[in-house]
Specification:
2 copies of one chain form a homodimer. Chain A has 373 residues and is of the alpha/beta class. Chain A has 15 helices and 16 strands. In chain A, the strands form 4 sheets. In chain A, strands 4-14-13-12-11-10-6-5 form an 8-stranded parallel sheet. Chain A has a 3-stranded antiparallel sheet with strand order 1-2-3. In chain A, helix 7 runs parallel beside helix 8 and helix 10 runs antiparallel to helix 15. The radius of gyration of chain A is 20 Å and the shape is globular. In chain A, 54% of the residues are buried. At the A-B interface, helix 13 and helix 14 of A face helix 13 and helix 14 of B.
Chain lengths: 373, 373
Amino acid sequence: MALSYELIKECRVTGARAGMLHTPHGSLPTPVFMPVGTQATVKAMSPEEIKEIGARIILSNTYHLYLRPGHELVRDAGGLHRFMNWDRAILTDSGGFQVFSLGALRKIREEGVTFRSHLDGSEHFLDPEKVMEIQEALGADIIMAFDECAPYPADRAYIKDSLGRTTRWAERCQKAQTRKEQALFAIIQGGMYPDLRQESAKQLVSLDFPGYAVGGLSVGEPAELMYEMLTATVPLLPANKPRYLMGVGTADYLIGGVSRGIDMFDCVLPTRIARNGTVMTRRGYLTVRNAPSASDFRPLEEGCQCYACRNYSRAYIRHLIKANEIFGFRLTTCHNLYFLVHFMASIRESIMEGTFPDFYQEFIARFGREKEV
Amino acid sequence: MALSYELIKECRVTGARAGMLHTPHGSLPTPVFMPVGTQATVKAMSPEEIKEIGARIILSNTYHLYLRPGHELVRDAGGLHRFMNWDRAILTDSGGFQVFSLGALRKIREEGVTFRSHLDGSEHFLDPEKVMEIQEALGADIIMAFDECAPYPADRAYIKDSLGRTTRWAERCQKAQTRKEQALFAIIQGGMYPDLRQESAKQLVSLDFPGYAVGGLSVGEPAELMYEMLTATVPLLPANKPRYLMGVGTADYLIGGVSRGIDMFDCVLPTRIARNGTVMTRRGYLTVRNAPSASDFRPLEEGCQCYACRNYSRAYIRHLIKANEIFGFRLTTCHNLYFLVHFMASIRESIMEGTFPDFYQEFIARFGREKEV
């Protein structure tokens, strides 16, 4: 069996649920935040550090690895796990989001997508069959069906057309799959139209995938709209399959997603803002790069047990970031990933103890979106 | 006692010697290569990684830390050891080399040097007393007297004048010193004139410093000229004090320096070329960034026990470097520092076993300067 999801406990008030995801590279508690290793490395970190933080699954990117170093090379290296020295679970996305983000550089047809590389302008063609070939060469535990991530905003007619194509592409991916030890997840689209989200979900659920992702959200829409889409979609998904909300990685969206029944999340934001000198804390964001940290000898977050907080001051980390020193980026990245992984663990604990609604309320009272501490 | 040097074994053929340097932050075997942490961090590395590599002393830069984050801040943080979380020995240079490298941006008088910051163009004045104040605030175990590192080439009259000033400045540093737990080393100058090198050495030795550095070498002169200067100078230095050749960090210069009686070395080269994708091996240099490494699944160096070589292929490291990924810079830096630290340990072992001359001959036969493997 490639993958199984074990539902362990459900919140009686919200949609939150605690589970275990069993993969060929180990089991992991859900809900879970997956650090992103776009180019076969979680930026600035070693695999050992990612493990020390507590992460049991990471994400990597089909689009990037296809272009560089090439999926055949990764296959020849023994697959992505061996290439990057990571023996825990990996999920590869389908490249859909990256390709559609290229804007004028890509052209979509029923058959597939023609696009130009962001690296050298070379022309490429990706279709469901090719995306499966690439992901099979990479060899992740969880792979994603090729989908169209429509722009936001987009009109209803376009979205309706697009979600049908995403379903047909998902079916083509399913048929093209040859390595049964990989779990192929489908991606629900449907823009900001609840009924189209439901239509997409129904079509894909009828094809019986081992897991479902919700794509095309957190693309600039208000939080309420994202939550409305989740509320419309998640109840249609089978309870015995994992549910993955793509591209979400702020504390408020994570807890908001969990309360609506999501099990898995990923986002580049925590690692990206880290390299810009901003860290996440239980009380909001701290831009350690800024002047107030210059002679502040406290850790990034009092009480945090991450490597950065146990050993270094804000003053030192600010100095490193200002001086463009790699070790500064390592420390802020370490903190942010530790923060999110442990935040998810706290959420799970509250679900197990039956106190998730209180946990959520307490969080909302303390943490405002993008609040500076 | 701030520092002591214990001479353990001398080579009977060359000037090579094995010793132990005892500092307030631990003892370390010599000859030793000191990784450079210019801005209070060895670029790309954590202190734990530097320890794992086997380094027991690192160097940091007075000039850089004075400008950013400022020596008072480091003092307020509890000194450099605590600021950067490094509990082994530290040597800070005097800033002389950096200030004199500024060229048109600095002006030298007997009193001191006026210069403009490379960061923001602000004007600063450094003299021996100020340099001592800064280095006392930083709190390294070994500190360096403020010297004039004259340009190469330079005419004899200028060098003669300059080395006299360097001696007078060294004496002013000695008088300004208040923290007796720090060992103040003097820096021998004298350009490429053997008799002026000897004059500088005699003047400084008469002032009785706990250690002596040879400065102003490896500045573009041929290897033979550098060796000629060492041969003229080192025999004048007391046998019971450590001798430090500044700014030297290639395998051939290290072994050449050791054979002429040098105990300590530092250089940014191994970490700098690492970040450009070049690594040091027992057989020469490997530019892992280049195409031949693209699908080479061997380690950087067969048989090397460093973290990079134990876990990653050239293909993976090349991919990371090409993709500008921090983890790639970490791996090449780790390898180069491990290589040099262990190279020095091998040299020491051969001195202890009385086989250093054979070791040197075997090295010369195998390793050409800047040879590509």
